[in-house]
Design brief:
Oligomer: single chain
Distance between the termini: 73 Å
Strand order of the largest sheet: 1-2
GO molecular function, one term: SNAP receptor activity
Shape: flat
Structural class: mainly alpha
Organism: Chaetoceros tenuissimus
Order of helices and strands: HHHEEHH
Strand content: under 5%
Number of strands: 2
Protein name: SNARE component
Number of domains: 2
Family: Belongs to the GOSR1 family.
Pfam families: V-SNARE_C (PF12352)
Number of helices: 5
Radius of gyration: 30 Å
């Protein structure tokens, strides 16, 4: 029991660390959008262009470092769950331990998918920046109607992606809340079953209720069948 509790505390620390790092990763994705050269098209000096380039380089380095930290934490949590927590839970043969292992596996799965989505979004933004990097030349705005149209379409698509991401994040939060409620309800059900096994006579009361319900269902079914047969006899006769 003490061994599993220690592993659970370690898993909780990794869970919180993952939440913090992935949240910072999402903020970094937004920063890439804000600091992109296309959002500084009014820069008129070469020093401004150099500052923007340096900012982009720093952001890339920060993104790579944070991504490596997230991957390392995901690997640590995966090893902890599958090589330590799961065997201990199996040896203890306790339902609540198995439920906790399942919960942490779901957290690991959700965190991995969330990180992959954020990483894919960052890569798409970088590809987009490379695609439209010709929109500015030496800090001077290029008057190209076709490029202007492409940039407007790009901004519209970016806004749509942001809205969709926001909706998906809300749906993910709701799903996590429902999942936590389900875990709590399963825990309550387990406690009720344990109480039923410990309290004398409670199982007999539950069985009597089930038998009475089954008898009532049978009476209703027979009554409905008789009504149907009488109706058919009356109509066809």
């Amino acid at each position: 029991m003490e061994e599993f509790d220690a592993l659970r505390r370690e898993a909780t620390k990794l869970e919180r660390s993952l939440e913090d790092k992935i949240s910072r990763y999402h903020l970094l994705a937004q920063k890439i959008q804000v600091d992109s050269p296309l959002n500084h098209r009014s820069v008129s000096s070469s020093s401004g262009g150099l500052d923007a380039a340096e900012s982009g380089t720093n952001t890339t380095s920060e993104e790579n470092l944070l991504a490596n930290e997230i991957n390392r934490t995901l690997s640590q949590m995966n090893d902890l769950i599958n090589t330590k927590m799961a065997p201990v839970a199996e040896r203890s043969n306790k339902a609540q331990h198995a439920l906790l292992v399942k919960r942490y596996r779901e957290i690991l799965f959700d965190s991995t998918n969330d990180f992959k989505k954020a990483s894919a979004a960052i890569h798409r933004k970088r590809e987009s920046l490379e695609l439209f990097s010709g929109a500015t030349t030496n800090g001077m705005q290029v008057e190209d109607p076709a490029m202007e149209q492409l940039l407007r379409e790009r901004n519209a698509i970016g806004n749509s992606i942001k809205s969709a991401t926001s909706v998906l994040n809300q749906a993910s939060d709701i799903r996590n809340e429902i999942r936590n409620q389900g875990v709590a309800l399963r825990g309550v059900g387990t406690k009720v079953l344990n109480m039923a096994g410990k309290i004398p006579g409670l199982n007999g009361i539950i069985d009597n209720i089930r038998r009475r319900r089954g008898r009532d269902d049978m009476i209703v079914s027979v009554t409905i069948a008789c009504c149907i047969l009488f109706t058919l006899w009356y109509v066809l006769g």
